[in-house]
Specification:
Blueprint (H helix, E strand, L loop, with lengths): L27 E4 L7 H7 L5 E6 H4 L3 H9 L3 E8 L5 H13 L4 E6 L1 H18 L5 E5 L10 E5 L5 E5 L7 E4 L1 H4 L4 H18 L7 H24 L4 H14 L11 H13 L3 H19 L1 H8 L15 H18 L16 H9 L7 H9 L3
Parallel strand pairs: 1-8, 2-3, 2-4, 4-5, 5-8
Antiparallel strand pairs: 6-7
Organism: Lineolata rhizophorae
Protein name: Alcohol dehydrogenase
GO molecular function: alcohol dehydrogenase (NAD+) activity; metal ion binding
């Protein structure tokens, strides 16, 4: 479990000389073209001998899973390939049953956020049943960045997105291989890139995000995401660009231990994603720019933090020291990026009934008494 350090009250201090960073228990991050070839040695270095693969239906139709199975060889104990969007609990229950029936002592998740989070839920459930934690190696093929956190979201029997959190759920190793990512469709790839951008920008004003290394790496990630997402859209087969984007995504949500939502854009995304079948990346395409505009107007400190991203995206402030205007310029740049990537979407396109603003806002904020309720309702209303 995460240890809370009560004596240090340093979160929220924007200072390069004072802060508090709680390291994540990630042991290995291996990146580069062909990095997947290290998988078997990673399994062994973690002290495991048999790996159970968790992945999704679409990726199973590509050569990726067969390649992973081949690399594992005799260390391959089984594969579950029925994880769907937003990690539905029915599929996770099946994965748990098959994992328990196998001889596996480590999980290997391959794909986007749903398989990675599903593997976390399998590990969490197994621990609850046996008292034993099962480690995970994550092999991401999208830019959603579920692999760096202790949190996992899944869709319950009522169709609502719920979550679990424990430091033991952080994958022990992450493999970033751009060659595997070539099999990810370009719309899924670029929209999850907006999800990564959502992480990086909302972490700038997250109360638990330290200046070093989280915000500094996030700013560099913002630069690369703005530069390489359009390049990847223009040339989807460019494996070097895909590799650079995987690394940028890692920097966008550099491993640190936190609980709860990253920010308001994420909260809205969780509220509409599973309920209406909207992909995670697309929810960020809809909500990020409006939330940044709201933050620019409603919080001087948030505006100051968002404004820091402006030079990283090749823009100049209209007036020195006008953080509010600079933050709005960042939001405008996000909206422009979404448009240029062909990712502009609206809730009505996903058959979200009109008049659901309050229900969505309450679901996202998890309280009808939340101080941001009215603002959230206004933002959601604008997403139709």
């Amino acid at each position: 479990m995460t240890t809370q350090i009560e004596s240090l009250d340093l979160h929220g201090i924007d200072s390069s000389v004072q802060g508090h960073y709680t390291a994540s228990p990630v042991k290995h991050m291996i990146y580069g073209l062909g990095a997947i070839q290290n998988l078997l040695s990673l399994v062994q270095s973690i002290g495991a001998s048999k790996a159970f693969i968790i992945t999704g239906r679409s990726l199973s139709k590509t050569p990726v899973i067969k390649q992973v199975q081949s690399i594992l060889g005799d260390a391959h104990a089984g594969t579950f390939n029925e994880i769907g969007q937003h990690a539905p609990i029915d599929a996770i229950r099946k994965a748990i049953t098959l994992f328990k029936e196998s001889s596996a002592d480590i999980l290997v998740s391959v794909g986007g956020g749903s398989p990675i989070d599903s593997a976390k839920v399998v590990a969490h459930t197994f621990h609850g049943d046996t008292g034993k934690w099962i480690p995970q190696i994550a092999v991401p093929t999208t830019l959603s960045v579920a692999e760096t956190t202790q949190n996992a979201g899944f869709t319950n029997d009522e169709g609502q997105k719920v979550g679990i959190s424990d430091s033991e759920l952080v994958p022990k190793a992450v493999l970033y291989d751009g060659e595997l990512a070539l099999h990810t469709p370009i719309e899924l790839w670029t929209s999850t890139g907006l999800r990564a951008l959502d992480h990086a920008l909302e972490l700038l004003y997250h109360p638990q995000a330290s200046e070093f290394p989280t915000k500094r790496l996030g700013l560099e990630a913002i630069r690369d995401l703005f530069a390489y997402l359009p390049a990847s859209k223009a040339k989807p087969e460019d494996v070097e660009v895909r590799q650079r984007l995987l690394i940028a995504a890692y920097g966008a949500l550099f491993p640190f231990l936190y609980r709860g939502s990253v920010g308001l854009s994420h909260s809205i995304g969780h509220a509409v994603g599973a309920a209406y079948g909207i992909p995670h990346g697309i929810t960020s395409c809809m909500s990020l720019a409006p939330v940044l505009h709201h933050k620019a107007d409603s919080s001087e400190e948030a505006a100051r933090q968002i404004a820091r991203a402006l030079p990283y995206i090749g823009k100049k402030a209209a007036a020195e020291g006008n953080h509010k205007a600079a933050a709005h310029a960042v939001a405008d740049a996000v909206d422009e990026l979404v448009t240029n990537l062909g990712l502009k979407r609206a809730l009505a396109m996903y058959n979200v009934p009109p008049g659901q603003e309050e229900a969505i806002a309450i679901r996202g904020l998890r309280s009808p008494e939340h101080p941001d309720l009215e603002a959230c309702k206004k933002i959601v209303r604008g997403l139709y």
